[in-house]
Amino acid sequence: MYKQPAISVIVPVFNVRECIEKCVRSLFEQTFESVEYVFVNDCSSDDSVQIIYALLKEYPSRAENVQIINHKQNSGVAVARNTGLACANGKYVIFCDSDDWMNREMLQKLYMAAEAAKADVAMCDFYMVGKKGLTHYHMPNLKVNKTLFMQHYLQYPWNVVWNLLIRKDLLHGLNFPVGYTYCEDFNFTVKLFYKAKAAINVCEPLYYYNRLNDNSVMNRFNSRMMHDEQEMYLDVIAYFKQNEMYPYYAKQLCWRVLKSKQEWLLDEATYTNFLSLYPECHNYIWSCPFLNVKIKIMAYCLTHHLKPVSVLMLKLRNMKTHLIGEDLRA
After folding, report:
1. Which one, out of 80, 283, 301, 330, has a CA that is 20 to 30 A from the CA of 105?
2. Residue 137 forms beta bridges with which residues?
3. Tell me: the pLDDT tens digits for 72-126?
4. Separation in Å, CA 224 to CA 51, 198, 260
């Protein structure tokens, strides 16, 4: 007789041969038993998937609860996650990036917390793994009303999906936005928490986020990612306006837009871009926690018909950068 797994773990896989073994072992060695594993191979050209198959022989009790789905063409992490969601059978789902790993008690602790609180989402803190070791990142406080939590979450810099155990029923109609390589987690998780009626935080760092992988998207920021970040923020703004909740979160969302376009202040040729993208956010320049003081002054002057001041500050900045470069070459 078929028995629904309590949790489905969804793992997108693409060219991670150096990391995948540690990730998979951490998943198969979980203390929680009722787990389905959904690996989505996004057309890896290395032996990542072969490593998974080899590990299945070491963990035969897990093997019968493993799906390995192969994409016909490389489609990106958002599509891979959506594929995993469509194939997942668990009461809850959780995502794991294939270059990261979990504490062996993570699934059990999140499941027990979710069930005890009858929560739609259970989340935990995480460790960032860097060259200097582990850094503990604390998630925002859930012991406040939902509006206040959302305001805090919108300005929190790590809006990630892999530390969330999510009741699958909650995800009806919610998918990762396709065609974007950056900030899709923000888009997904903000809408998720808005839909959730109850959420709980275990307040322990149970997930290990690997920043040592040089191929990680987070280590390759570029203009495409800047564009995607802006699109994700504007989409969330439209979502809150559609749900008539935008006034409660306008300040935090405008801060996000300012953050995403501050690079345009560092080139006079892109001043027009800065001015034209969601001008409402200019009302929140001085309060924005994502901008330093010099950027705030440049932004304020540019948006208040004092462009020459912004240009002068930019020239002084460029001159200083040039002089530092000359000193280093001397």
Report:
1. 80
2. 126
3. 999 999 999 999 999 999 999 999 999 999 999 999 999 999 999 999 999 999 9
4. 32, 35, 12
**The pair of three-digit structure tokens given for residue 34, joined into one six-digit string:** 């009722």
Long-range contacts of 290-294 (CB under 8 A, 24+ apart): 290/255, 290/256, 290/258, 290/259, 290/262, 291/258, 291/259, 291/262
- Strand pairing report for 66-70 and 35-41: parallel
Long-range contacts of 15-19 (CB under 8 A, 24+ apart): 15/44, 15/45, 15/46, 15/48, 15/215, 16/44, 16/46, 16/48, 16/98, 16/99, 16/213, 16/215, 17/46, 17/47, 17/48, 17/51, 18/99, 18/213, 19/98, 19/99, 19/100, 19/210, 19/213
Contacts of 198 (CB under 8 A, 6+ apart): 117, 118, 119, 120, 121
Length, in residues, of the chain? 330
Contact (CB, 8 A) for 304 and 296: no
Q: Which residues are within 8 A (CB) of 168 and not within 5 positions of it... i.e. 6 or more apart?
A: 8, 85, 88, 90, 91, 92, 93
> Which tens digit of pLDDT belongs to each residue from 212-232?
865 555 445 578 999 999 999
Say what the pTM is.
Answer: 0.92
Q: Enumerate residues 6+ apart whose C-beta is below 8 A from 189.
A: 153, 159, 160, 161, 164
In this prediction, residue 323 carries a pLDDT of 56
Beta bridge partners of 165: 122
**pLDDT per residue as tens digits for the range 20-45:** 999 999 999 999 999 999 999 999 99
Residue type for 60, please? P
Angle of helix 293-303 versus helix 307-329 axis, rounded to 10: 140
Rounded Cα gap, residues 111 and 143, in angstroms: 19
- Report percent pLDDT > 70 for the chain: 94
Could you tell me which residues are beta bridge partners of residue 166?
A: 93, 121
Separation in Å, CA 154 to CA 277, 288, 304: 19, 12, 27
